[in-house]
Amino acid sequence: ERGDDEEETPPTKKPVTDHSVKVASHYNKLQEVGLEVRSQSRIFYMRNFNNWVKSVLIGEMLERVRGAGSRNVSVLDLGCGKGGDLLKWRRGGINRLVCADIAAVSVEQCQSRYEDMKRKSYNNEKIFSAQFITADCSTEVLSEKLDDPQLMFDICSCQFVYHYSFESEQKADMMLRNACERLKPGGFFIGTTPDAYELVKRLEASDSLTFGNEIFKVSFQSKGSYPLFGCQYHFNLEGVVDVPEFLVYFPVLEHMAKRYNMRLVLKQRFSEFCEEKVKKEQHRNLMMKMMALELFPCEVGGRQASESTEEYSHAKERCCRAGLRQVGTLSRSEWEAASIYLVFVFQKMA
Ligand code: SAM
């Protein structure tokens, strides 16, 4: 209404909603902690389990794109966070990675983790090239920000992110557009997100508007009717996540994805996914490895060693060889939280 407002806000700058600000500032504030602190956490095994789900999913999809003849694999990590999946992309031997997230501090940390990884790699290991973008992927068009405007992706990975966009149809559609519009034919949009059916089932079974246990709490504002978009709940997980999220009504997502020529290939609850994948020895072994808690003091020469140092990894290697590890499992409370999620895979039709 006031002319001077227009001067303060350049017309090219998109308005940022309160919700996006809350999400970005929440993730920006999260501290990176070392193995010592992580292993004390009540969700230590759940985090490892979630990582295992992502590793198996990513590993299998990379095998599929290679099996289909892709030699130069490009990946978009949509909502990359602090780069928790960088090692998975490295192990998967991809060629190009684009990381995007709304939280600028997280993107910076992701980039410095990548630079670190490159610095410490052995001479003959070719680490993928990467671009880092800070953007609200539910309101901004990512393809306009790519260094290489011709770049097409084999995989878009969106891990524990997509539900933030279900605030409105426009946002959910923009996130979907960013995930799918630059996928090669046959390419995959993969991810993990809370299962709306499971959330509503637990809410309806509760005699209040909240449910959960000592490690997580989900709170709704009402129950009985659930709009397709903007159905907000508050998710609190052991100081890791404490933000408003939105129900993703999967049939709507599936329908919307058709606009981008995407067909649903897999939708599986974590429990079903796990049950199926542990039958494979390779995945079972990885699970054992990832659920192992190293039982050694992270000290080198009497002082605390940082996890990223070479001496730390040597000390760790020695202890692992000596068998100083213990394979743990999820507590009942952790399982109640982990079993809320599902895995999805969409494929771009030719
Ligand atoms: N994908 C990472 C992982 O699996 O470790 C991070 C997951 S974290 C639970 C959710 C991430 O989604 C946060 O880093 C947050 O900043 C990001 N995010 C939420 N809304 C977003 C949006 N509109 N655009 C881009 N990133 C968003």
Automatic annotation (TrEMBL):
Which residues of the sequence carry a binding annotation for mRNA? 50-51
What is the taxonomic lineage of the source species?
A: Eukaryota, Metazoa, Chordata, Craniata, Vertebrata
Positions the record marks as coiled coil are none
Q: Which gene encodes it?
A: RNMT
Question: Cellular location of this protein?
Answer: Nucleus
Q: State its Enzyme Commission number(s).
A: 2.1.1.56
What is the name listed in the Swiss-Prot or TrEMBL entry for this protein? mRNA cap guanine-N(7) methyltransferase
Site location (mRNA cap binding):
82, 88, 113, 163, 245, 341
MRNA cap 0 methyltransferase domain residues are 41-349
Question: CDD domains in the record, alphabetically?
Answer: AdoMet_MTases
Task: Please give the organism.
Answer: Nothobranchius furzeri
Q: Which domain of life is it from?
A: Eukaryota
Q: Which GO terms describe its cellular component?
A: nucleus
Q: PANTHER family attached here?
A: MRNA CAP GUANINE-N7 METHYLTRANSFERASE, MRNA GUANINE-7- METHYLTRANSFERASE
- List of residues binding S-adenosyl-L-methionine: 54, 79, 101, 136, 159, 164
Family per similarity comment: Belongs to the class I-like SAM-binding methyltransferase superfamily. mRNA cap 0 methyltransferase family.
Q: Which UniProt keywords apply?
A: Methyltransferase, mRNA capping, mRNA processing, Nucleus, RNA-binding, S-adenosyl-L-methionine, Transferase
Q: What is the recorded function of this protein according to its Swiss-Prot or TrEMBL entry?
A: Catalytic subunit of the mRNA-capping methyltransferase RNMT:RAMAC complex that methylates the N7 position of the added guanosine to the 5'-cap structure of mRNAs. Binds RNA containing 5'-terminal GpppC.
